[in-house]
Amino acid sequence: MTPFFLLQLLISVSLTLASSHDYHEALSKSILFFEGQRSGKLPPDQRAGWRGDSALSDGSEAGVDLTGGYYDAGDNVKFGFPMAFTTTMLSWSVIEFGELMPTDELRNAAVAIRWATDYLLKTISHPGLVFVQVGNPISDHNCWERPEDMDTARTVYNVSADRPGSEVAGETAAALAAASMVFRDIDPGYSQTLLENAMRAFEFADTYKGAYSDDPQLKAGVCPFYCDFDGYQDELLWGAAWLRRASQNDSFLDYIQNNGKTLGADDNINEFGWDNKHAGLNVLVSKEFMEGQALSLESYKEFADSFMCTLIPESSSSHIQFTPGGLIYRPGGSNMQHVTSISFLLLTYAKYLSKSSQTANCGSIQVDPSSLQLQAKKQVDYLLGDNPMNMSYMVGYGDRYPQRIHHRGSSLPSVSSHPQFIACKDGSDYYKSANPNPNPLVGAVVGGPGEDDVYEDDRADFRKSEPTTYINAPLVGVLAYFVANPNAGLVLT
Ligand SMILES: *[C@@H]1O[C@H](CO)[C@@H](O)[C@H](O)[C@H]1NC(C)=O
Ligand SMILES: *[C@@H]1O[C@H](CO)[C@@H](O)[C@H](O)[C@H]1NC(C)=O
Ligand SMILES: *[C@@H]1O[C@H](CO)[C@@H](O)[C@H](O)[C@H]1NC(C)=O
Q1: How far, in whole angstroms, is CA 144 from its chain's centroid?
Q2: 62 lines ligand 1 (CB under 6 A)
Q3: pLDDT digits (tens, 9 = 90+) for 17-32
C-alpha cells in the first residue's frame, strides 16, 4: 500500500509535469503549417485541405519553370532570400534534433524541406543566373486575394554576373548544403544533387560579389520587404560554413579562415535572422573548434559565448531586451522570428558544449548547457501559452490562440467552400471583418505580442498577426528537442 504522504507527493509531481506542454502536438503542427504555405501543384497527400493548386505558370514570363516553393508569409509572393533561409533552418533543425523526432514527424519535416529544395534547384538550373523572386510585391500587396485566384503580375526577378546577388546565392548554397545532410541516408542520390548544386550556387555567389538590392530594378522588387540591409558578406561565410559541414571539404574551411576578416566575421553582430547570419555562423563554426579540429576558429566560440551571455540572466554582460513576461524582444515587427531562431541557437550551442564537456565563458561565470536549455524552455513555453495573455501564439494549439491572422488564404473562404473567383479588391470585406479566419492555418506562429506582452488579435496589425516561414523553421528543431527532453534545463530543488 502506498503511504498517503507518498501519494500526495506523486500527485504534486505529476501536476507539475502536467503543466508542461504537449510538445509533440506542437511539433506536428509546426510542420503542418508549411503545407498551408505551399505554392504550385499540390500532391494527393496534402493535409491542409483548404488549399488548392496555385501559381501553376510561375516562371513562364521568363520561359522557365518556377512552380512550387513556399509563399513566405500572409501574401502570395515567393521571396527567394527568406525562402532559402527557411530551408537552411528547417534542415538545421533536422540535422541537430531530427533523431529526437517521432518517425512520422521526421518524415513530414523531410517532405517540407524537399518542397523547398525542389524549388531552389529550379532557381539555379540556368547557368549564369539565379532566379531570386516570383511575384511583383507591390501589386500582390495591393490585393487581398487567395493564392488559388491570384491574377497579379508574377514578375520573375533574376541576378547574374552583371547584377550580382551574393546574399541570395550564398543563402541558397547554405540551404542546399544543409538539406544534403538531411537526405544523406533517406535519398543518397538526391543528397548528392543538392550538394553539387550547393557548390555551384556558392561559386556563383563568391565569383560575382554584390548585394541584389544595389541594382535599381531588383531593388524595386525586393525592397522594402527583403532588401539586403546588412550586406552579403555574412552569407558568403555562412554558405562556406555549411558546405564545410556537409562536405568536410577543406577548401571551405580554408575559405572561412582566409576570408573571415575581409568578410566581417569579427563584426560579431548579435543577430540571427533571414538578413543577418552572424550569431548562427558563430554557433555553427564553433562546433568544429570545440571538437578540437580547427584551433584557428577559436574566435567563433568566443563570439558565440558572448552572444549566449546576453541571454543568461546570471551573466554580468549586457542583456538583450525581454518583455516583462520574459519573452525575448527586438523592435521591428515579427518578433517571434527572433524568439524561435535564438531558442534554436541556445539549444544547439548547449548540445555542442555538452558533447565536448565545455561551458560558455561569461566573464566571471561559466554558463553550463542546462542554463541555455532553461532559457530556451522559457521562450518556447511562453510561445505556447505561459504568458500574460494566457494564449498560445501558435494557431490551433491550446485553448486560446490567434483567430485573425494576417494571411490571405486563411482569412478568405476556401476554394472548396467558395469556388467562385474572388477578385483583388473583393477580398477587402474579409480583410476588414471582425470574424475569425475561416481556415485555421494550423501550426502558424504569428509575429506575437508587443514589448508590453499585449496581443490584440488584429488582422490589420501585420507586425503582430502575420506568420512567416522563418518563424516556424527553427521552431521545428526546438520542439523536437523538447519532445525528447520536456524538462530539460529545469533545476529540481
Ligand atoms: C534577367 O533579368 C534581366 C533584367 O531584368 C532581364 O533583362 C532578363 O531578361 C532576365 N532573364 C531571364 C531569363 O529572365
Ligand atoms: C573541394 O572543393 C573544391 C572547391 O569546390 C573542389 O575543387 C575540390 O574538388 C573538392 N575536393 C574534394 C575532395 O571533393
Ligand atoms: C491569465 O491567467 C491568470 C491566472 O489564471 C489571471 O490572473 C489573469 O487575469 C489572466 N490574464 C488574462 C489576460 O486573461
Answers
A1: 25
A2: yes
A3: 445 899 999 999 999 9
Place of cell 488584429: 458
CA of 424 from ligand 1 middle (Å) equals 27
> Does the C-beta of 390 come closer than 6 Å to ligand 3?
yes
User: Is there an atom of ligand 3 within 6 Å of 316 CB?
Assistant: no
One of 278, 338, 406, 407 is an active-site residue; which one? 406
In a domain, 118, yes or no: no
Ligand nearest to the CA of 254: 2
Looking at the CA of residue 250, tell me the nearest atom of ligand 2: 1
How many of the other CB atoms lie within 10 Å of CB of 115? 21
| Window from 6-15, 93-102, 344-353, 397-406 with minimum mean pLDDT | 6-15
- What the block records as the C-alpha cell of 221 is 522588387
pLDDT in the model for residue 489: 74
Q: Which ligand number lies closest to the CA of residue 155?
A: 1
Q: Say how many Å lie between the CA of residue 61 and the centre of ligand 1.
A: 10
Residue 493, pLDDT score: 47
Q: What digits encode the pLDDT tens for the residues 15-74?
A: 444 458 999 999 999 999 999 999 999 999 999 999 999 999 999 999 999 999 999 999
pLDDT at 115 (0 to 100):
98
| Active-site residue, selected from the candidate residues 278, 457, 458, 461 | 457
Rounded Cα distance, 175 and 195, in Å: 10
Answer yes or no: is the C-beta of 220 below 6 A from any ligand 1 atom: no
Instruction: Give the range of the structural domain holding residue 346, as residue numbers without chain letter.
Output: 310-405+441-484
Atom of ligand 3 nearest to the CA of 389: 13
316 lies in some domain: yes
457 is catalytic: yes
Residue 62 CA: which ligand 1 atom is closest?
A: 14
* Tally of domains within the chain: 1
Find cell 498551408 and name the residue. Answer: 36
Q: Tell me the C-alpha distance between 486 and 21, whole Å.
A: 8
| 364 falls within a domain | yes
- The closest residue, in CA terms, to atom 1 on ligand 3 is 390
Residue 151 annotated as catalytic: no
Cα-based distances in Å from 189 to 93, 193, 196, 246: 22, 6, 11, 15
Whole-prediction pTM = 0.95
Task: Provide the pLDDT for residue 293.
Answer: 77
Active-site annotation holds for 235: no
Atom of ligand 1 minimally distant from the CA of 63 = 13
Asked whether residue 279 is assigned to any structural domain, the reply reads no
